[in-house]
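RECORD TYPE: inverse folding
INPUT: structure tokens
STRUCTURE:
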């Protein structure tokens, strides 16, 4: 085993606790944070890379969630206790996406079982199930992957919605969303050119290519603090599709801009990198998340170039925060996040089908509440990281129909007022659109 890596048994234990919480309805990142905190309080000085290793194991398992749970159903006669089931699930994930030799995974899973009072008695059982799984894995996988929910690793209703939205490409999108996400950076053009930064990466032996006007795709994952220039704010991590929002908004020097749903502040910082002397209000409902906007603004030195107020408020209640109108409003609305499943593979498993209509109602409320704040001849850009039409084209069409003074106008360089951007991953960069990006929808309106 790699001397620099934490013991696999410990990583499996943390991952198993996180899995258990995830399957009780907690988001993956919260589940991991709480599992890691519980492990750290019960064990002195966990290995510095334990959290990263547990994260990798849990994400890998969630990318195979449906296969793992279907396999378990075939491998055991009675459902195991939840703690043992969780340990088996994350260990099966390691057998499916081999990072370690299978015998190491099984041995370490048994160690993990014995080290925890909730699974101690199940050590022999864990061993037997994993050995059996290993023997039957190829055949079971082929058999189970005939079911769409297993092949696409998503609930049935999710697959059906995507099929309806993208009849020709839904399978491709679902397959792509099972893969780990690309690491894409936004170069802070105030601090240097894309060409110079690419050259710097080359000198440091880091493989990267340009995929958008300010976007670079770094091959291979790496912690953010190990990205050259990240801590100094020279670059930020931001998907190339997400970077389009601020580009499409076409802010000009001195404008008043509202970033209506702003945390963690990726686009707020990008606005300040784009034009001079902007006056930006960044509104965010969640106070804890609003702190991340401040962190991002500090790291990127955004306030050297713009006046920025971070306001903790409900964007649907302008009386709580607005004392003026805006030339540009960016509404990056809360949504199902169906376009960013690569980054958050837990999303399809946490959402319920009723969430789509509920979120669409919230988006409609936000649009209606913010529209009066747009100056005459000002613009509002509506953005969601979703590929479901209810949150995209249908939402924008309904908004346009409700407001006679909201004129859909062409998105710059696109020629249409709406842009549906299903997730893709390819090389090159053409027609102003990045070649690697998550799934988004954009719609622009001008006040007449
Ligand atoms: C898609 S994220 C925004 C990402 C951000 N624009 C960026 O680029 O970093 C949506 C954000 O809206 C916030 N939010 C949800 N409902 C809100 C509301 N009613 N008012 C303000 N913010 C809200 C969420 O907490 C979340 O941080």
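DESIGNED SEQUENCE:
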């Amino acid at each position: 085993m790699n001397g620099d890596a934490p013991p696999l048994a410990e990583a499996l234990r943390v991952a198993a606790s996180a899995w258990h919480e995830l399957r009780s309805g907690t988001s993956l990142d919260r589940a991991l944070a709480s599992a890691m905190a519980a492990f750290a309080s019960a064990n002195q000085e966990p290995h510095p890379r334990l959290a990263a290793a547990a994260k990798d194991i849990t994400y890998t398992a969630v990318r195979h969630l449906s296969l793992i749970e279907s396999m378990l159903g075939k491998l055991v006669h009675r459902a195991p206790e939840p703690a043992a089931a969780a340990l088996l699930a994350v260990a099966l994930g390691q057998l499916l996406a081999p990072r370690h030799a299978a015998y190491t995974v099984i041995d370490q899973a048994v160690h993990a079982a014995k080290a925890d009072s909730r699974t101690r008695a199940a050590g022999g059982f864990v061993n037997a199930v994993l050995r059996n799984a290993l023997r039957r894995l190829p055949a079971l996988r082929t058999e189970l992957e005939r079911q769409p929910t297993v092949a696409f690793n998503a609930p049935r209703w999710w697959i059906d919605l995507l099929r309806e939205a993208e009849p020709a490409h839904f399978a491709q999108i679902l397959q792509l969303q099972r893969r780990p996400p690309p690491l894409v950076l936004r170069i802070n053009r105030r601090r240097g050119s894309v060409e110079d930064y690419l050259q710097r990466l080359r000198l440091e032996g880091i493989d990267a290519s340009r995929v958008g006007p300010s976007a670079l795709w770094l091959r291979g994952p790496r912690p953010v603090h190990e990205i050259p220039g990240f801590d100094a704010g020279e670059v930020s991590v931001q998907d190339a599709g997400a970077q389009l929002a601020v580009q499409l908004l076409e802010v000009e020097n001195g404008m008043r801009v509202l970033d209506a749903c702003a945390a963690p502040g990726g686009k707020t910082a990008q606005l300040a990198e784009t034009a001079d002397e902007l006056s930006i209000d960044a509104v965010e409902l969640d106070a804890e998340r609003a702190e991340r906007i401040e962190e991002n603004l500090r790291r990127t030195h955004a306030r050297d170039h713009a006046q920025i107020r971070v306001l903790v408020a409900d964007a649907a209640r302008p009386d709580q925060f607005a004392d003026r109108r805006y030339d540009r409003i960016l509404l990056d609305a809360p949504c199902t996040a169906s376009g960013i499943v690569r980054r958050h593979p837990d999303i399809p498993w946490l959402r319920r089908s009723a969430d789509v209509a509920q979120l669409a109602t919230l988006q409609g409320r936000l649009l209606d509440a913010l529209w009066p704040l747009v100056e005459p001849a000002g613009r509002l850009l509506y953005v969601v990281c979703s590929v479901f039409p209810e949150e995209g084209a249908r939402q924008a069409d309904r908004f346009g129909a409700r407001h006679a003074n909201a004129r859909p106008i062409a998105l710059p360089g696109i020629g249409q007022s709406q842009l549906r951007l299903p997730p893709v991953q390819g090389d090159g960069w053409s027609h102003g659109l990045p070649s690697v990006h998550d799934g988004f929808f954009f719609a622009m309106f001008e006040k007449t």
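NOTES: The first strand starts at residue 183 and ends at 187.
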